[in-house]
């Protein structure tokens, strides 16, 4: 990574974090309701029976109401567990049981499955800081999802869950950055490639 590219990513991440922190309660509630409906539509239209998701932190798009709905509908949801080696393990989540993970982020409590369990899902829904129009996903800098997605020979469709304003013309890209197949925002589903 060049110093300029690293600085560009850090500056963009800082700007995006600040935007997320200054959102009002009304904006968050409105987006959560809309995002839940959009995620439900994604699952129903694609007849998804199993997926990988994440437990959203307070500033992230809130996927928790959707997670509870998915559990009630019998959709099998795998949630990540961070590992010291930079990879992710997975566990089946119920939308309720959680603990604090390696980096202070919420993580699922459950029987730990290997990273290979990810190959059995119909779709992977990842967190992201932003996504460019070309499908380049920029995460928060730890590389967990890039490593996980980059290690999969046959991966299911991958969609980043972001706020509408985080769908940008472009984001800084490094060789290790894994693209996504689409995005899901409170207002829409966009597929880049299938």
From TrEMBL:
GO terms for molecular function: 5-formyltetrahydrofolate cyclo-ligase activity. The keyword tRNA-binding does not apply. It is an enzyme of class 6 (ligase). Its EC number is 6.3.3.2. Keywords: ATP-binding, Ligase, Magnesium, Metal-binding, Nucleotide-binding. SUPFAM superfamilies: NagB/RpiA/CoA transferase-like. Residues 1-17 have a biased composition (Basic and acidic residues). Belongs to the 5-formyltetrahydrofolate cyclo-ligase family. This is 5-formyltetrahydrofolate cyclo-ligase.
């Amino acid at each position: 990574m060049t110093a300029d590219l690293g600085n560009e990513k850090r500056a963009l991440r800082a700007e995006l974090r600040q935007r997320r922190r200054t959102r009002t309660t009304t904006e968050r509630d409105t987006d959560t309701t809309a995002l839940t409906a959009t995620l439900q539509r994604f699952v129903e239209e694609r007849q998804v029976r199993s997926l990988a998701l994440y437990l959203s932190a307070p500033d992230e798009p809130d996927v928790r109401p959707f997670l509870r709905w998915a559990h009630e509908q019998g959709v099998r949801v795998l949630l990540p567990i961070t590992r010291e080696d930079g990879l992710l393990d997975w566990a089946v989540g119920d939308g309720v049981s959680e603990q604090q993970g390696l980096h202070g982020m919420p993580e699922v409590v459950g029987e730990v499955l290997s990273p290979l369990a990810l190959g059995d899902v119909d779709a992977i829904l990842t967190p992201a800081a932003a996504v460019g129009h070309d499908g380049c996903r920029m995460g928060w800098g730890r590389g967990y999802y890039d490593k996980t997605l980059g290690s999969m020979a046959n991966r299911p469709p991958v969609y980043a869950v972001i706020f509408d304003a985080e769908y940008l013309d472009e984001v800084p890209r490094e060789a290790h950055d894994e693209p996504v197949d689409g995005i899901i925002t409170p207002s829409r589903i966009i597929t880049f490639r299938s």
